[in-house]
Amino acid sequence: MTNHKPARNAGSENSLDHCLTLRHITGVGTGTFHTLLDVFGSAEAALNASASQLSGLPIRAETLSALRNDEKPDITADLNWCSEKNHHIITLFDERYPEQLKDLSDAPPLLYVRGDPDYLQQPQLAMVGSRNPTAAGRSTAKEFARHLSKVGITITSGLASGIDGASHEGALHGLAGTIAVVAHGLDIVYPAQHQKLAQAISENGAVVSEMPIGTQPLRGLFPRRNRLISAFSLGTLVVEAAQKSGSLITARFALEQNREVFAIPGSIHNPMARGCHQLIRQGAKLVESADDILEELRLPAAKNTLYPIKTDSNIHENPEDSHKTLDPDHQKLLKCLAYEPASIDELVAASGFKAAEIASMLLILELEDIIVCQDGRYTCIT
Predict the structure, then answer these.
(1) Fewer CB atoms < 10 Å away: N or C end of the chain?
(2) Picking from 89-98, 152-161, 354-363, which range would have the lowest pLDDT averaged per residue?
(3) Quick check: bond before 191 cis, omega within 30?
(4) 198-247: pLDDT as tens digits
(5) Is the pTM of this model over 0.85?
(6) Residue 256 pLDDT greater than 70, yes or no
(7) CA separation (Å) from 98 to 150, 177, 258, 356?
(8) Residue 283 sits in the same domain as residue 177
(9) Does one domain contain both 223 and 170?
(10) 206 membership: H or E segment, kind and range
């Protein structure tokens, strides 16, 4: 594996302008950028290389032609973006560049950061999962993220709908903030409904991309984004995922990068749990509580930190323990929802209550945000 710790000249020959110019030349992606640095030693030297020096390099003809062209690409959009408050472009040679990325064979030459770049140096856990999770899965992601953030773990995810968004939201209620790694230029927010969330992340963490300003969220860029989510982090936690899921791509990258992979098991009847079960069969660590992750990563257990957090770190607590203020009938009904979503007919059979009685109790529990109805089935979420 190539090590990209900058033994090359990290001074003016690799200035932001030089790195941006080289990256914007037609056909110069991450791999070609590193090839040119390996051959010429600096971005400036690569830009000034003669035709004879460029000949014979393992680079496509159209890219060689663009490199020989005296007319260099316009980097104004990137520089204008970078001039705004809390906007940063970090080169591979910048001291702020995250150490954990430098060992990647395709380490991004440039990182665009909206927010505080110091968060990139924090110990991080990646949290990923389905874009269409169950209500219980979304709740679990929020609680794990909140809890881990409270003990000093920055949560890293991809700003997607579903588990990603829930993980960011949970982390924002903690102390260590959150990082969103995206697959497009930072002049846009995708998905659009996460405008407010992206703003909150930039104020309590960072939104990060390797893609230049103006890059649209094309399908092929998301797997590349996933390799960075896992590389930033000490490990990757998959909360809910189908068997064919982008989350499993992130988990595979984590394994290739010698990071830990964690998975939360679910019901055998839940299709969103099958990806997690597949990962567990392949050797991922089964996780039931946040402390399972802290222990595996050899980080301080929640109860040993200075942060004011709950003494019970097991997030999957039994509903009968957390809802003791409810009357006995409501507690009995909640026991039927403790582990599996259920329909009213199933609750009638399990509880012995009449359908009308159950409908009345379910309404109260929904209004109290204790349960949620999804596709006609009720799930306990607190």
Answers:
(1) N
(2) 354-363
(3) yes
(4) 999 999 999 999 999 999 999 999 999 999 999 999 999 999 999 888 89
(5) no
(6) yes
(7) 22, 17, 17, 58
(8) yes
(9) yes
(10) strand 205-209
Classify residue 156: in a domain, yes or no.
yes
Q: Do both 118 and 252 map to the same domain?
A: yes
Q: Which pLDDT value is given to residue 339?
A: 66
* Claim to verify: residue 103 and residue 238 sit in the same structural domain: no
CATH number at residue 350: 1.10.10.10
Q: Which helix (H) or strand (E) holds 276?
A: helix 274-281
Q: Which residue has the tokens 């020959």?
A: 13
Question: Using CA atoms, how far apart are residues 154 and 205, in angstroms rounded to an integer?
Answer: 8
How, if at all, do strands 371-374 and 285-286 pair? unpaired
Nearest to 232 by CA among 180, 326, 312, 156: 156
pLDDT at residue 382, rounded to an integer: 62
pLDDT band at 318, cuts 50/70/90?
very low
Residue 310 inside a domain? The answer is: no
Task: Tell me the helix, strand and coil percentages in the chain, rounded to 5.
Answer: 45, 15, 45
Asked if residue 274 lies in contact with residue 247, where contact means CB atoms within 8 angstroms, the answer is no
| Residue 237: its H or E element | strand 235-238
C-alpha count within 13 angstroms, C-beta hemisphere, residue 4 = 27
**Which of 304, 339, 359 is a domain's end point?**
304
Write out the H or E segment, with its range, that includes residue 10. Answer: none
Q: Note whether 73 and 200 are same-domain residues.
A: no
- The first and second tokens of residue 73, run together, are 């690409």
Domains: count for the chain:
3
The 3-class SS string of 31-42 reads HHHHHHHHHHCC
Paired tokens of 216: 């649209």
C-alpha span between 127 and 142 (Å, rounded)? 10
Which of 64, 82, 107 is at the close of a domain? Answer: 107
Query: Which residues span the domain enclosing 81?
Result: 12-107
Say yes or no: 86 and 121 in one domain: no
